[in-house]
């Protein structure tokens, strides 16, 4: 059995997956997706970063630094350090990968989602002997309503606010959530949204890669001509809302789209790009895994739940705290 550990990234023997620092004395680095806590790069000529072409394109929207990379599409096997790897879509964001090692000896889910969204189908469960699974929502209280139901609530809320001539300000993570919100604005509200500059680049990558988002415009002193604004959630606060209300002369209706965050004064919709507790369990069961390693979020809690409830050998791979998560 290959050795797996978590030390400044997941490691399967000599290969590092989603390194948290790139100063590690290793040659081969895999990046599962473009969220910044998973995609640390270095321009060292000694290191090669293996990722999907979509992940590469998304990283380039925020980082212009050259780095040594090898772009591997989904479903194409490649060998590293004597092992065979293959990427499969993880349903999380554009280009996000689960990794199968040696035809299922080990599977790394990385961040994943099983349910379909307006942009993507969910991930397929891969068969694994040893499963390394994320556990962001690894506690029973994190069970979300069906996505379809959340979409209906968003549509009803948005239409009502727009009818009252309010300006919708939607907070969603720049890569992943903001693109779904762009689609929602077009498809549910029939509105072309303005998007913050950190959202504009990723939106264009999605479009180039064939994901149909509908129309969008870059936020650039043109707030008065639009009814929907999409920004990253960390920018959404009372001061900003107040400033927008003064400059636009309209009432702002803010909303946050996350399974995790809430913000006083804003409507919150639990639209998550991670598996909820039930889908985490479902993945473990359907994978047929004999051993399960958990990491990210509630790793310990989820591992002990798997042992008790499913009778499968499980343990937490790291002591990662929730506060280390940048994406949710
Ligand atoms: Zn992520
Ligand atoms: Zn993550």
Description:
With 328 residues, the chain is α/β, with parallel strands linked by helices. It folds into two domains: 191 residues, Ribonuclease Z/Hydroxyacylglutathione hydrolase-like (Metallo-beta-lactamase, Chain A); 123 residues, Rossmann fold (3-Layer(aba) Sandwich). Helix content is 26%, strand content 23%. It contains seven helices and 19 strands. Strand 5, helix 1 and strand 6 form a beta-alpha-beta unit. The radius of gyration is 20 Å and the shape is globular. It starts with a strand and ends in a 12-residue tail after the last strand. The C terminus is likely disordered.
Give the termini distance in whole angstroms. Answer: 32 Å
CATH superfamily of the largest domain: Ribonuclease Z/Hydroxyacylglutathione hydrolase-like
CATH third-tier fold name of the largest domain: Metallo-beta-lactamase, Chain A
Q: What percent of residues are in strands? A: 15-25%
Please list the strands of the largest sheet in the order they lie side by side.
Answer: 7-8-9-10-11-18-19
Short recap of the structure:
With 328 residues, the protein is an alpha/beta fold.
Keywords, separated by commas or semicolons:
328 residues, alpha/beta, Metallo-beta-lactamase, Chain A, Rossmann fold, 2 domains, 19 strands, 26% helix, 23% strand, globular, disordered C terminus, binds zinc ion
What topology emerges from the helices and strands here?
Elements: E1 4-6, E2 10-12, E3 15-17, E4 28-30, E5 48-51, H1 53-60, E6 69-71, E7 78-80, E8 83-89, E9 97-101, E10 106-110, E11 130-134, H2 147-163, E12 167-171, H3 177-189, E13 194-195, H4 197-208, E14 217-218, E15 228-231, H5 238-248, E16 252-257, E17 267-269, H6 277-287, E18 291-295, H7 299-310, E19 313-316
Parallel strand pairs: 3-4, 4-5, 5-6, 10-11, 11-18, 12-15, 12-16, 13-14, 13-15, 16-17, 18-19
Antiparallel strand pairs: 1-2, 2-3, 7-8, 8-9, 9-10
One zinc ion (ZN) is lined by residues 35, 37-38, 111, 296, 325, 327.
């Amino acid at each position: 059995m290959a050795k797996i550990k978590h030390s400044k990234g997941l490691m399967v023997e000599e290969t590092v997956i989603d390194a948290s620092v790139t100063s590690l004395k290793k040659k081969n680095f895999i990046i599962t997706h473009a969220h910044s806590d998973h995609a640390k790069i270095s321009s060292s000529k000694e290191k090669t970063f293996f990722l999907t072409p979509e992940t590469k394109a998304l990283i380039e929207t925020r980082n212009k630094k050259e780095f040594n990379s090898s772009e591997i599409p989904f479903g194409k096997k490649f060998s590293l350090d004597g092992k065979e790897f293959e990427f499969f879509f993880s349903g999380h964001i554009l280009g996000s990968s689960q990794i199968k090692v040696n035809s299922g000896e080990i599977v790394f889910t990385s961040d994943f989602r099983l349910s379909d969204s307006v942009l993507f189908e969910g991930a397929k469960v891969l068969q694994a002997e040893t499963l390394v699974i994320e556990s962001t929502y690894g506690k029973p209280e994190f069970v979300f309503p069906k996505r379809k139901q959340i979409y209906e609530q968003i549509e009803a809320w948005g239409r009502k606010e727009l009818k009252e001539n309010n300006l919708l300000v939607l907070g969603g993570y720049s890569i992943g959530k903001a693109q779904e919100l762009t689609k929602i604005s077009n498809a549910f509200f029939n509105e072309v949204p303005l998007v913050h500059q950190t959202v504009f680049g990723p939106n264009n990558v999605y479009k180039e890669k064939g994901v149909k988002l509908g129309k969008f415009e870059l936020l650039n002193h043109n707030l008065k001509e639009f009814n929907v604004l999409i920004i990253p959630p960390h920018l959404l606060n009372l001061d900003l809302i107040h400033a927008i209300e003064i400059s636009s002369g309209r009432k702002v209706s803010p909303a946050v789209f996350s399974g995790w965050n809430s913000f006083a004064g804003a409507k919150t919709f639990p639209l998550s790009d991670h598996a909820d507790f039930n889908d985490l369990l479902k993945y473990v069961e359907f994978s047929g895994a004999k051993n399960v390693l958990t990491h990210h979020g509630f790793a310990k809690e989820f591992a002990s739940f798997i042992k008790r409830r499913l009778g499968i050998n499980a343990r937490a791979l790291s002591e990662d705290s929730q506060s280390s998560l940048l994406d949710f």
